[in-house]
Amino acid sequence: MATFRVSTLVAAPPEHVFATWTDLDRYPEWIGGVTRAGDLVGSIDEPGSRYTLWFGRMASPTEILEVERPWHIRTRFGNAILKGESDVMFTAEGHGTRINQVFVTRGFIAGIFGRLFAMGSYRGSFRGELETFRKLVERDALGRG
Question: pTM of this prediction?
């Protein structure tokens, strides 16, 4: 197991940040390599619910383990390359929202790929995805006035 942490401050309220984070249709806009998300069984607001992220032909089944709207969501995900858990906290900070995300990988291969995704801030890295998400939410917030 390996643990990786990323954080950013988003200039938008927690309710908007959380709503965007849990909008499966928006995942391809900010998660590197995701071509589609769907197959939701249950509600994104309920532990035990499931959905699938697709990276081309490779599926990554995901289960919601814990959720407290708009403050917290923890999921378990996995495919042949990367599997583990994501634990995300959304905290009001000033006029925005601090996102703290912790990835814990499972298995040797996932640990190696997790390390690669944790390095740098390129588009598909953990930090790069979080920064792409921040820009997406802030652009949306500006559009709302």
Answer: 0.91
Which residue from 91, 71, 75 is spatially nearest to 31, judged by alpha carbons?
A: 75
10-residue averages of pLDDT along the chain (145 residues): 93 97 96 92 95 94 97 93 93 97 88 77 83 96 74
| Spatial distance between the Cα atoms of 81 and 1, rounded to a whole number of angstroms | 14
Instruction: Give Cα separations from 101 to 15, 71, 144 (angstroms).
Output: 17, 12, 26
- What span, in angstroms and rounded, lies between the C-alpha atoms of 12 and 14? 7
Q: Supply φ then ψ for residue 33, to 5 degrees.
A: 85, -10
Comparing CA positions, the residue from 91, 88, 70, 108 lying closest to residue 5 is 88
Buried residues in 66-81 as b, exposed as e (16+ CB within 10 A):
ebeebeebbbbbbbeb
Alpha-carbon span 141 to 132, nearest angstrom: 14
Burial class (CB in 10 A: 0-12, 13-18, 19+), 47: middle
Closest CA to 64 of 88, 82, 80: 88
